[in-house]
Amino acid sequence: MGVFGNLKQNIGKLFKTGLFHIFGINVINKIVAFLSSTLLVWILTKEEYGVFSYAWNIYHFLLLINGLGLTVGALQLCSENPDEEYCNLIFNNCLKIGLLIDLVLTAAIVVFSLCFNFSIPPARILLIILCALPLLQYLFDLLTVYLRVKKRNMAYAWTMMLNTVLTAVFTALGAFLLRDKGLICGYYLSYIITLFVGFFVFRFKFKDVKNTPKLEKSLLKTLFKISIISMCTNALSQLLFLLDTFIIGVICVDELLVANYKVATMIPTALLFIPSSMVIYIYPYFARHAGDGKWCLKKFFQVLLGMAAINGIISIILYFAAPFVIKIVYGEQYLEIVPIFRILVINFFVSGTFRAISGNIICTQRKFVFSLVESVISGAVNIAADILFIKYFGIIGAAYATCLVVALSSLISTVYLLILFNKKPPVQPAAQEDEI
Question: How many domains, the chain?
Answer without folding.
Answer: 2
